[in-house]
Specification:
Two copies of one chain form a homodimer. With 239 residues, chain A is of the alpha+beta class. Chain A folds into two domains: 150 residues, Nucleoside Triphosphate Pyrophosphohydrolase; 66 residues, Arc Repressor Mutant, subunit A (Orthogonal Bundle). The first copy, chain A, has six helices and nine strands. In chain A, strands 1, 2, 3, 4, 5, 6 and 7 form a seven-stranded mixed β-sheet that branches. A two-stranded antiparallel ribbon of chain A has the order 8-9. In chain A, a hairpin with a 4-residue loop joins strand 1 and strand 2. The longest helix of chain A is centred in the middle third of the chain and has 18 residues. At the A-B interface, strand 1, strand 5 and helix 3 of A face strand 1, strand 5 and helix 3 of B.
């Protein structure tokens, strides 16, 4: 019986994106492993506890990682392939990390989050290091973590169409039109025409030009903008 | 150890919507139960097998239910609350259904599907009956199945924004403008202005008016339309 139906362990994994003014980055942790450094970087994650649901598990993981309790997380997909545990080294690491329990199968519920890349990271957890890595230069990661990041990238587009305000979670409080354009380009993975993009910004009434401009730059100082959530919410509600 | 981390059973549940020209309906199955008929209707679902992933499990469930192998399914959310098994009767039924295995915790991965309501249902499975029920008149169902349907209803809107063609999975091959308007109203749960709606249809180049009109109707016979996938795909690709 035990063999014919799936009784398994369930984890959560979090794909946290940050934007460094030119590209999207993902927050990775280094797993504690005595073996070689091969595939030592992975997505932050955890088995979920008996008394918590997956949302609570994902919040716990990010709290342990960053010290931050409130962060917007979006559950976007469960990864359930029986093959995701097929690598022996991955399985061995997992079983050691979880006190030598035999783990035949592990499914994971993946979460997506967007945060400012200069957010202070308080490592309060078991990981040696936490670091940002550009999505274009990710290392080979254990399990199906590379696939999870790839699907999270597509999911950002869906999320943006539903709620464009999430973009501003990735930007500093004041940003230039160029910053915003580069962010669009990173998310949609295609160049935006500069003139059209300026027209686009002008149509978004919740993007407010400030009096302030860049300082100490060698090129012509660009104007700063800010996101106005009150105007955004009014527009969204059709007021 | 067994107690502090979640080792559990994993199921899939399918919310299949059909449209009967006035409202959305959900496909429910009657569970085999010797006890009273209380909460005997539920979403079609199953524990997933050791060698399949969740997508394969969901397809298997719908194949058992309808005899159909190819159906578009969208994984939309995992339901993981430790409370979803809190009802003793639900738990007892589940343990009997699965050969008296002790099942402490069950998470489910929910799928959404849209199909024509007159599709022939070949019940090749363990269920006594399969029936359509209007979403406005659902019975109280076991576990969190009522909540799963509610969230599936919101998910249809997301899906439609990404891929409007899914609408036509719910309509017969030829349909009137009124059919289409009623479907919009059912999905968005608000009345559509008739004149504006006709303008909207006129803008959708992939909705083709036919020469054919309704027959044997007491009111003025309405024109039929059909969905043209080739034009739709060209538009979508921006050709």
């Amino acid at each position: 019986m035990e063999n014919s139906f799936l009784r398994t362990y369930v984890s959560v994994d979090c794909v946290v994106f940050g934007f460094d003014k030119s590209q999207l980055n993902v927050l990775l942790v280094q797993r504690n492993t005595s073996s070689s450094a091969s595939k030592s970087l992975k997505l932050p994650g955890s088995l979920i506890y008996q008394q918590e649901d997956a949302d609570a598990g994902a919040h716990r993981v990010l709290h342990e990682l960053t010290g931050i309790k409130k962060i917007t997380l979006r559950q976007f997909k469960s990864f359930t392939s029986p093959e995701r545990m097929s690598n022996k080294d991955d399985r061995a690491w997992l079983e050691i990390a979880y006190h030598n329990n035999k783990i035949d199968r592990l499914i994971t519920i993946a979460y997506l989050s967007l945060c400012k890349i200069n957010r202070k990271l308080n490592i309060v957890s078991k990981y040696k290091t936490v670091e940002w890595r550009p999505v274009s230069q990710l290392p080979e990661m254990p399990f199906d973590h590379n696939q999870i990041v790839a699907e999270a990238l597509s999911e950002i587009q869906n999320w943006m169409e539903k709620d464009p305000a999430i973009l501003f979670k990735l930007l500093p409080l004041k940003f230039t039109a160029t910053d915003l354009r580069h962010l669009y380009e990173a998310i949609y993975r295609e160049k935006q025409d500069i003139r059209n993009f300026h027209k686009k910004i002008a149509r978004m009434e919740y993007i407010i030009p400030l009096e302030e401009k860049q300082e100490k730059v060698s090129h012509k100082a660009a104007r700063y903008y800010k996101f106005d959530r009150i105007i955004y919410n009014k527009q969204k509600l059709g007021i």
